[in-house]
Design brief:
heterodimer; A: about 400 residues; mainly alpha; ABC transporter involved in vitamin B12 uptake, BtuC; 2 domains; about 70% helix; B: about 300 residues; two-stranded antiparallel ribbon
């Protein structure tokens, strides 16, 4: 792997270099995730190229076509952005609890129940109440139900010691069964014959598109949620406490931090975002709650969050990239005669390689100012000197 | 005797038949997962392994006209998936849960990619043993038409239960699963043991997939699995990492899945979908009842990240 960062050979510190040192240290620490992620991404592409060569096609043609299909035109960019929108919210459902050291994989359950709740609250109101009131109510309903659903996993984790990964997975299956029960039974529109659904929302109660684009408001909602989450984690005392608890629960408890409230709060907020994704899916895409809500956004969100290393701002580009790869599937199928699953193979390869490369963190001296030849300004002891 | 003659007895019979038919993939996937988890690692990617196994078994069966060759080929590919997972998880800072989900995506993608040409052709099915010959009722005959893999799965679970307790391999597996340090002190290499355990787990999961494509429903398409591979994780916890428990839990999960259709056939349509949730609710209730914030689950391998 080649990493292009200035080699810090600053042993005899000149005054000039001394003043540069903090900048270099800052750069080195920031460069590590970017360089490793990019390197892993390229390695994944290389592996995938070998696969494409083996099946007898040209990787260069494929990548060119992928770029065209994902980002080559205004039309394809809009397509990619539309596909990225739900992933932003479902990725947050994984990334927020992950900052506390919790692995939540059941976001799918919050998505489907959030969507059902949004439809359930909107339908009785559409006759009399204005959309300006109904749409926010739908969002709130989706967030509350989604929040409760994943919040249960948090409560069980903290107060009963139940593993949150398994609990959230079980809850997701229960949620899908509940959704099927509701849309087949109490909430079913008798007019939906082949595909059981709730009654459709009237057009004026739909969320609509961002002006000038063929992309619905879900994208704006998703990006806003990412920014809010980033601010919450990085700039508030609540987020600071969460980061401490994520690093070491015992230390946080000894410090008197409200670990229980943090866990429940973060899981509930995470579920709220996933529920919001369900509401957007109902209000902007489907127009009613039906089985299409369980389209796997919750599971794709897990990978987006891990690839973004649970950084809410990094989720935005990762989700858009995945949306682009996803969007190019049809074009590849038509132009190269490859199955549409080609993009799934690429995604899978990239995920495995990028997650594998997690092991590289801390292995490159160049990114670790503590290991540089001259003592670090951060005052930490220099391990290479200690052994000397 | 006519169709109606069996009356209300059709419900338990349908549940019984459904349990046996539906549970076989659960049996193999959960036995595989229990071996992997007993070694202290969790493989969430068995869904991908299962679907890839289903595709491989079907493709090989179509090409060679031998369903058993298909099963063995599926086992080989499952082992390869397990080896990849086990190899990657050997490295520090790698999250086995995340790798599992990535491997699931990879396995699904690859199976759909390579399986495209095999959606049309028809493969030979795995044989089944007609144990219902004593009865004149066609319902009973079809219910007791039991597939060989189901019987193998049942025997395998007893064998594994015995082997965990009484063989050297079983003890090594359990030591590694309970404490990496203790294993190292005994001169065992925990990573190698887990690598092999994940490979064996993967090959068993692939057999579950082969059952899906070669017996019931008995065709290959992209929607062949309804999440059996993912559920395996819940099932193994439900069964307390006990292979015989896995067998019984798989029957229970299969039976609960068959409850809805069986009741519908006699006219009960209320709550049809809620019955699908029954096994998950039960697992969750058992988890809540037996967990405690201060100690890990009874029977759980000590080194397993997911129960801490």
């Amino acid at each position: 792997m080649t990493i292009e960062v200035n080699t810090p050979t600053l042993s005899p510190l000149s005054t000039d270099a001394r003043s540069l040192r903090p900048l270099l240290e800052w750069l080195a620490r920031r460069a590590e995730p970017v360089a490793i992620s990019l390197g892993a991404f390229l390695a994944g592409l290389a592996l995938f190229s070998i696969f494409i060569l083996v099946v007898g096609k040209s990787p260069a043609d494929l990548f060119k076509l992928m770029f065209t299909g994902g980002f080559g035109s205004w039309f394809s960019i809009q397509n990619s952005l539309s596909r990225a929108a739900p992933l932003l919210l479902t990725a947050l459902c994984v990334a927020l609890p992950a900052r506390l050291g919790l692995v939540i994989i059941g976001g799918e359950g919050a998505v489907v129940l959030g969507g059902v709740a949004a439809a359930a609250i909107a339908l009785p109101l559409t006759a009399s109440v204005s959309p300006i009131v109904v749409l926010p109510l739908m969002a709130i309903a989706g967030m509350i139900v989604g929040g409760i659903w994943i919040g249960i996993a948090g409560v069980l984790r903290h107060y009963r010691g139940v593993n949150e990964t398994i609990a959230s997975l079980l809850l997701a299956y229960i949620a899908i069964a509940l959704m099927n029960h509701l849309i087949e039974g109490p909430l079913r529109d008798p007019a939906s014959l082949n595909k059981p659904s709730t009654a459709p929302l009237p057009a004026e109660y739909m969320l609509g598109n961002i002006p000038g684009m063929d992309v619905n408001w879900g994208l704006v909602i998703g990006i806003t949620a990412c920014i809010i989450s980033y601010t919450l984690i990085e700039a508030t005392s609540f987020g600071f406490a969460a980061r401490i608890a994520g690093g070491n629960v015992r230390a946080a408890q000894i410090q008197g931090l409200p670990v229980g409230r943090l866990i429940v709060g973060f899981t509930a907020l995470a579920g709220g975002f996933a529920g919001l994704a369900g509401m957007v899916e109902v209000a902007a895409v489907q127009g009613s709650a039906n089985a299409s809500l369980a389209a796997g956004y919750g599971y794709s969100g897990i990978l987006v969050a891990f690839l973004a290393r649970h950084n809410p701002l990094a989720i935005v580009p990762v989700a858009i990239l995945l949306g682009g790869i996803d969007a190019s599937g049809g074009l590849i199928q038509r132009r190269m005669g490859l199955p549409d699953a080609t993009v799934l193979v690429l995604q899978g390869t990239l995920f495995v390689v990028i997650l594998f490369c997690e092991t590289l963190y801390g292995r490159f001296k160049i990114f670790n100012p503590d290991l540089w030849k001259s003592p670090s300004l951060s005052g930490r002891p220099n391990p290479s000197e200690r052994t000397a | 005797m006519d169709e109606a003659g069996i009356g209300i007895w059709g419900v338990p019979l349908a549940i019984f038949a459904g349990a046996i038919r539906v549970s076989t993939p659960f049996i193999f996937v959960s036995l595989g997962e229990s071996i992997t988890e007993r070694s202290g690692r969790i493989n969430l990617g068995l869904e991908g392994t299962l679907v890839f196994g289903a595709m491989t078994a079907y493709a090989i069966a179509v090409m060679s006209n031998s369903p058993w060759l298909g099963v063995f080929a599926a086992m080989a590919t499952g082992a390869v998936f397990g080896l990849i997972h086990g190899f990657i998880c050997k490295f520090p800072k790698v999250n086995d849960i995340a790798i599992g989900i990535a491997m699931m995506q990879f396995g699904l993608g690859l199976a759909f990619f390579l399986g495209k040409p095999f959606i049309q052709p028809v493969a030979p099915h795995l044989p089944s043993i007609p144990l219902g010959g004593w009865s004149d009722l066609p319902q009973i005959q079809s219910a007791l038409n039991i597939n060989v893999l189901f019987i193998i799965g049942g025997l395998l679970s007893v064998m594994l239960w015995w082997a965990f307790k009484n063989t050297r391999v079983g003890l090594v597996l359990r030591v590694v699963g309970d404490s990496s340090d203790a294993a190292r002190a005994m001169g065992l290499n925990p990573d190698s043991v887990r690598l092999l355990a994940t490979a064996v787990g993967g090959s068993l999961a692939a057999v579950g997939g082969a059952y899906l494509s070669l017996f019931y429903p008995g065709s290959w398409n992209e929607g062949i699995s309804s999440g059996q591979g993912l559920m395996a994780v819940a099932l193994v916890i439900f069964a307390r990492w006990n292979p015989i428990g896995c067998f019984l839990a798989a029957l229970l999960f299969g039976g609960a899945g068959a409850l809805g259709p069986a009741l519908q056939s006699v006219g009960v349509t209320q709550g049809y979908y809620l019955f699908y949730a029954a096994p998950y609710v039960l697992t969750l209730v058992i988890l809540v009842a037996t967990s405690s914030p201060t100690r890990s689950l009874a029977g759980a391998p000590g080194a397993l990240s997911i129960t801490k």
